[in-house]
Specification:
mainly alpha; four-stranded mixed sheet
Length: 418
């Protein structure tokens, strides 16, 4: 059984690396050809950025694989023999959180490289070293506090229920929903400063769009995201009356009012079609499959690993294999998500009024330009990794010729991963 588990993880890593290698080769060739959507120099730069990201992904995959082998070979046993508490719940919290802390520390060089080398080189990073350290420490402390509570909850469930895997799924699924509800509030509390939108005309237009779709919100807010990053983005967070519309200040700066309304119309399209709930249901299905699988592993696997069937061992094995199951689910989730994006684009263009498809197309072009998103990708990479359709396909569905997009969108100064 252990050999099968290692073989599955090895295959997952190899496929992941292969798709990255294929993407690198594809982009390398494509960026030498005719520029699409972007000026030639920006097209080439976006290609370089895409390649750099995939090279980092390959390096990350190698490190993750080595860590996986080390954890199942002796790492978990080392934690088990090094930490001891008479209280079993404390023992589970100490071992699982040590596992998470070690993983976080090992990932720090990658996070630093992405922020201060890769993002710095391509003009995204706006954060100081002090700000990054502060953000990292806050994230670390929050992980320790809330992670310990989640581990304690699962420990109690595994220790007291025969069908622990089913009740653990219910518990974790509830945590996922709760995180979605509280995310905007926590982000505003510890990271971004959110202020109510001051542009009364824009605020009125946004609320008009929300009324059309029945979207009830606690308000429209602007995030000072530009102090950390130059990318453009926006998000809707929360459930019920606690929902918030959050616009990055970079998005307001770069998009015209009508383009911004088209983008928000797209997001409201997701709400109107119930896509948020569909995505949560898909995640729930993945979690159920994961807990069902690990709740019925044969005793021989633990014997081969030389480990007890303790709650903390089960939790660590779950976390080690979560990326594999997520990767297997990704093509299905990607197909559903890309379909939803087309439908949201259609509704966004309609909500934006006459000529809405052009406004949305121009907004997509600006997002591609500002976020340095290379507009072409290898089909295999799209299949395994894309939650959004390639931008050229989105323009095609909108009935817009990409050569006609942005002829006026990028002229002069702007007024202004959707």
């Amino acid at each position: 059984m252990l050999t099968t588990i290692v073989a599955i993880y090895t295959l997952y890593v190899l496929i992941n690396i292969y798709t990255s290698v294929m993407q690198i080769g594809f982009v390398n060739q494509a960026k030498k050809g005719k520029a699409v959507l972007l000026p030639s120099d920006e097209f080439s730069k976006a290609g370089d950025y895409a390649i750099a990201k995939q090279r980092m992904s390959i390096a990350n995959s190698f490190v993750d694989y080595i860590l996986f082998i080390l954890w199942i070979d002796f790492g978990i046993k080392t934690l088990e023999t090094s930490l001891y508490f008479q209280n079993e719940a404390y023992m589970s919290i100490a071992i699982v959180m040590s596992f998470l802390v070690i993983g976080s520390v090992i990932s720090l060089p990658f996070a630093y490289y992405e922020k201060f080398v890769l993002d710095e080189k391509f003009g995204f990073n706006k954060s100081s070293m002090g700000q990054w350290i502060k953000d990292t420490l806050i994230s670390f402390v929050m992980t320790i506090i809330f992670g310990s509570l989640v581990v304690w909850g699962i420990h109690l469930i595994i220790s007291n229920f025969t069908l622990w895997w089913l009740w653990s799924f219910v518990f974790i699924f509830a945590v996922v929903v709760l995180i979605n509800m509280l995310y905007p509030a926590f982000r505003a509390m510890f990271f971004d400063k959110l202020t109510p939108l001051q542009d009364e005309e824009l605020d009125s237009e946004i609320k008009r769009l929300m009324d059309k779709t029945g979207f009830v919100s606690s308000g429209v807010f602007v995030s000072d995201a530009s102090k950390r990053d130059a990318r453009l983005n926006a998000y809707f967070g929360g459930f019920g009356k606690a929902k918030r519309v959050v616009l990055f200040d970079t998005l307001i700066e770069k998009l015209s009012t009508r383009e911004l309304l088209a983008v928000l119309g797209h997001e409201l399209g997701h709400f109107a079609h119930g896509d948020i709930y569909k995505n949560i249901a898909l995640v729930g299905g993945m979690l159920l499959a994961m807990f069902g699988l690990f709740g019925n592993l044969p005793d021989s696997l633990y014997f081969e690993l030389g480990l007890s069937q303790s709650p903390y061992v089960i939790m660590i094995l779950l976390m080690l294999f979560m990326p594999v199951l997520g990767f297997l689910m990704m093509p299905v989730m990607g197909i559903v998500s890309r379909h939803n994006e087309y439908e949201a684009d259609r509704m966004g263009s309609e909500l934006a009024g006459e000529g809405g498809e052009i406004e949305l197309a121009n907004a997509l072009k600006k997002l591609v330009t500002e976020n340095k998103s290379f507009p072409l990708s290898h089909p295999l990479f799209i299949f395994f990794h894309y939650t959004h359709p390639p931008v050229l396909e989105r323009l095609k569905e909108l009935g817009v010729d990409y050569e006609d997009v942005g002829k006026n969108a990028l002229e002069g100064s702007f007024k202004s991963d959707i």
